[in-house]
Amino acid sequence: MPEKRILIIGAGMAGLSAGCYAQRNGFRSRILEMHDKPGGLATAWQRKGYTIEGCLHWLVGSGPRNSFHSIWEDLGALEGREFITQPEYLRLERREGEPLVFWSDLDRLGEELLRLAPEDRHPLGEFLSDCQALARMRVPTPDKPMDLISPLEMVKLGVQAAPFLRLAGKWGKISIDAFAQRLGNPFLRDGFRQLWFPQSQIFFLMMTFAWLHNREAGYAIGGSLPLVEAIAARYRALGGEIRTCARVTKILVQGDKAVGVRLDDGSEERADVVISAADGHTTLFSMLEGRFLEDRLRKYYESLEPFPPLVQLAFGVNDRLAVLPQAVSGLSIPLEERLQVFGRDHVLLPIHAFNFDPTLAPPGKTVVVCLLESQYEPWAVLHEDPVAYRAEKERIAREVLRALDRRLPHFSEKVEMTDVATPATYVRYTGNWRGSFEGWLSTPGAWNLQLPQTLPGLEGFYMAGQWVEPGGGLPTAASSGRAVIQRLCRKERQPFQ
User: Fold this and answer.
1) 142-163, pLDDT tens digit by residue?
2) CA pair distance 393, 389, nearest whole angstrom
3) Residues 6+ away with beta carbon under 8 Å from 288
4) What CATH number matches the domain at 5-80+221-305+441-492, 3.50.50.60, 3.40.50.170, 3.40.980.10, 1.10.1040.10?
5) How deeply is 384 buried, as exposed, middle or buried, from its count of CB atoms within 10 A (0-12, 13-18, 19+)?
6) pLDDT digits (tens, 9 = 90+) for 61-120
7) Are the C-beta atoms of 187 and 115 separated by less than 8 Å?
8) Helix 202-213 and helix 151-171: axis angle, to 10°?
């Protein structure tokens, strides 16, 4: 029987994962990538000798105890990679008084929180106790999509996962903001809201602390690009091919079957199977022109909340900035004046110094990144006027530098490189819907949803990536690409390798 030909749209983490597993299972695959290099949202870029990390803060599965570890090994992501676990998750400063440190170590975190807010001993104790319980668990996760699991396997998994599922049921429908409202200490209450997006469910945050405590979610020295390049090299070594600068505009359908794609240069490529690991909205509403959409899936795109668009400011600094903490999410400082960024008023400035990664800057120097929530539509409009667009980016950079000078005297004098990426930048280089920097936010109403990887009435087509299930992140994307090939193997009645 001849090899099945697979076209994969997008060389992000999901597309590369699908490609690697396709090659390992005897399919012949080819990835079409709109950018000039693989990676998608898992990317970085260089300016004046500095590397600006656009994605990686921590990688779930860096430690062998974690269930995602085997996937990263399959993909060749871990070979020769050095991982570090920063001692702090986030340090939150205030105008008067000592800062609040959210430590990566749960024991130290508990001491810090209870020392600062003994009046909140009961809610904090419950939170910390369940974080410790999660850290002690070896969470059993299925090695295949849930709908491919046999009834007997489902029963065994349910028994093994019962303690985890109990905690997930307890905390999964509580947002970070709702938990923060239980706290009486105002500084601690605001601190929890700074840890992650306050509308997201707190269970994800608890899992993050458990992973960090167990050293299962380290930062990969070198950042995103070496990680992606290693996976792309594994894919090519398996016989796969990546075609860059190849933007797909349409998925070709004959009858009820996907048969190939059309590119923006008018050329067409044919295949037996098409996998879209590209932006979900573009795939469904543009490449497939809104066909094959069930009402339920359409409503998801109307009601689910994507990760917000960001303005990312990066500064190359002639200083190692050893005074700044080595923290997963950096340092947050109060602003003396509100900073307006298209529909968002910021009273705090997040500062993420990559002083723990010497590969991103020349010796004795470092990169500082500030991420600010914004809105997409105003930036999309402004981008049509290059002069006004550049002026607004420069205004925001000036105000951020002024704030940094107050916290770090003479900071701006040491700045050798400034780079500002907006939501319009994210769309231009990755195509991600509305400039979102991941996919669906894991809110209490969506934390356990899974969107379909296939569409009713359309054969030979699959979807993978962060738009398939809420939560986002590199592990989700990689496991999603793996799941697509598992489904394809089941359809072809062959064992999955």
Assistant:
1) 788 888 888 888 888 888 899 9
2) 6
3) 251, 253, 455, 458
4) 3.50.50.60
5) exposed
6) 999 999 999 999 999 999 999 999 999 999 999 998 899 999 999 999 999 999 999 999
7) no
8) 100
